[in-house]
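note to self: dont lose this again. the chain is below, predicted strucutre after it. 189 aa total, dont forget to put it in the shared folder this time
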Amino acid sequence: MKDHPIVLGIDDATFRLKNGKDYTFLIGVICQGTRLVKVEKRKIKIDGKNATKKIIDLISKNKKHIQYVCTHTITFGGFNLIDMKEIYKKTQKPLIAITEREVDLDSVKKALIHRFPKTYKKKMKNIFNAGNLYETKIETAAGFSPLYFHKIGIDLMEAQEVLKKCCIDSKLPEAVRMAHIIGRIFKDY
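---
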């Protein structure tokens, strides 16, 4: 693995359900190590089911330039859950979906049943397709912090190495951290 892997980091933009819009944006940031290379956005439906397709599009458009893909969780725009297996199948790019805390699967399932009584099973399938939730420790300016992640197309040791190389002062990989910051611009959108 290179000292400065090329990573596509993805997070969603801030959105408000009360503004009358039913969409938000996926923000994709490509970094080589900590150096910003490119920023892109794609429109996704809030609570929809098109985030998987939009991430596949982002990866495919930049496929020859990126080595790894890191997302901030598997949920975007509310409950627009990605299917990690589908993304990997279509792109063949290693995918790491990170979260800053353990997931309470029972609470998520209850929320999905309440909000999507007829279609919650498909959304739950995407959660199960993400596979195991792993834990690692990332060194930050404040010491070591736990980071949780799902992975596909990459072994555990390599995934941990990618995270260690791409997390600088934060426990989020730099490309994901930048996507998160850029996504906050849209809070009044």
